[in-house]
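User: Can you help me understand a structure? I only have the sequence.
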Amino acid sequence: MQNVLKAFKRREAIGSSVNYMGSLLTFLAESKDTGGAFSLFEILLKPGNEPPPHIHHSEDELYYVLEGEASVYVEVEEFAVKGGDCIFLPREKAHAFIVKSQRFRMLFLTQPGGAEDYFRTMTSSPASTLELPRETPTYSTADIQEAIKLGTQYGLEFLDPERTKELLPGFHEALLTRG
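Assistant: Let's start by predicting it. Here is the structure, written out as tokens:
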């Protein structure tokens, strides 16, 4: 039997939000809501909460920046993004970003859907507020071996420093100057 999609309305809410690696994620449209076509989250980060350089083998990503500034690296390209900017990240392309403002808030669209399963399976906790969590591990402070292992099950490949230097030279240089 074919899944019948239903119209729905959703907004940022504690019940649909989780704390993950020092960030706040709100699931606005999940794969189960869209017949697997896409997933849409709102993500709130601060400097130091960025994920390590990685490649998505299963989905394309689109960021729409609501607030703040970041530098986004996609292979040899660098994009400075700020509120109102949209950036498309095709699957199979190495990418990473560095948050440049105290708060960075974006809509995060993945196509096809299902990325929410990774975030729910990884160490996340229900949000108690709609602000950044205070005391949680971030990618820069946590042992990310669990993320690396689980990522492979979801078509996500985290890059080691050598592959980062090779595939994302601008990001590698930015890290060296950032300290």
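Now, to help you interpret it: The chain has four helices and twelve strands. The radius of gyration is 16 Å. Let me know which part you'd like to focus on.
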